[in-house]
Design goal:
The protein has helices at 6-10, 78-102, 110-133, 139-163, 168-189, 196-223, 233-264, 271-298. It is mainly α and 300 residues long. The radius of gyration is 21 Å and the shape is globular.
Length: 300
């Protein structure tokens, strides 16, 4: 199962090029019928040893049977994912608070602070793209991305709180936390079934959403005003809600991706990729909440 996340979609833990093995039955001594040997084991120093339980695709089993995940030394665990995610998100929060305090958005410093925020946001985007194409996770690169993203979020959040409505930042944070907790509970309870249909629907919806936002941005840059109005007024509210819902769906895909990685016995360093992807998804949800709340307060 691949996530829309550029990190996960570029090099998903399962590397199965889709859904190989979902409806397969294992054969003794070889790959399951209708499947292939685990691509994660091909050319992987962690999975080439004789007797390695991951020499075949662990999904090559009967439908409904959960993937088996024998404990292997150096394999990624949920504790690893939690620890790396806490470190990455903590870096975002710390630099966001510092930028809020050190980069004021008053009339005298607004232009300077905005300039620094834009540069930091673009640099964070570049680092995210670099990491997504690297063969292995680079913790220093991931933490640098988190720090720069925090600078951008801190200035933008301070500006919204100062010029639109005080208190919206706390509301956006609480909303993001609520979405994360709600999706996690729904996923663990089985209320959200991440399968091929779910994946296809979310990816199609995300593609349409991104294309519309890109067109709206072009009209805003070259035509001035609010572009096509997708980010203001009634349409802005609708698209803000859609953005949050899509972010929640991507969280479910990310949870599935992490679960698959643990089941596959991915190396411990892959926990940094999980943290990176989850952080990007949560940042997106936060930004959608912040934008939605800003629109709602402007219309009051």
């Amino acid at each position: 199962m691949r996530s829309r996340n550029p990190v996960f979609s570029r090099r998903g833990f399962s590397r199965d090029n889709g859904y190989a093995g979902f409806n397969a039955t294992p054969q003794a001594g070889g790959p399951a019928v209708g499947t292939q040997a685990d691509p994660y084991a091909q050319g992987n120093p962690y999975a080439q040893q004789a007797g390695n339980p991951y020499a075949q695709n662990p999904y090559a089993q009967q439908v409904g049977a959960p993937p088996q995940a024998p404990v292997t030394p150096g394999a990624m665990t949920m504790d690893d994912v939690v620890a790396r995610t806490a470190t990455t998100l903590g870096t975002v929060v710390l630099t966001a608070v510092l930028s809020w305090l050190l980069l004021p958005v008053d009339e005298a410093n607004l232009g300077k602070s905005y300039g620094i925020a834009v540069v930091a946001g673009l640099a964070a985007m570049v680092l995210a793209l670099i990491q997504s194409f690297k063969r292995r996770p680079a913790p220093a690169l991931i933490l640098s991305y988190a720090a720069l993203e925090g600078v951008f979020l801190g200035v933008i959040s301070s500006a919204v709180s100062t010029y639109i409505a005080d208190g919206v930042v706390a509301q956006a944070v609480l909303g993001t936390m609520a979405v994360f907790a709600g999706v996690l509970v729904a996923y663990k309870a089985g209320w959200i079934r991440v399968n091929r249909r779910f994946y296809g629907f979310v990816m199609a919806a995300a593609l349409g959403f991104v294309l519309l936002m890109a067109v709206n941005l072009l009209f805003t840059v070259f035509g001035g005003g609010d572009g096509l109005g997708f980010r203001s007024g009634g349409l802005g509210i609708v698209f803000g809600i859609i953005g949050i819902i899509l972010g929640a769906c991507f969280l479910a895909l990310d949870f599935k991706q992490v679960e698959d990685g643990i089941a596959y016995g991915a190396p411990r360093e892959e926990a940094w990729l999980a943290a990176f992807g989850l952080t990007m998804t949560l940042v997106w949800i936060y930004m959608e909440f912040l934008r939605l709340l800003a629109i709602l307060n402007q219309s009051d």
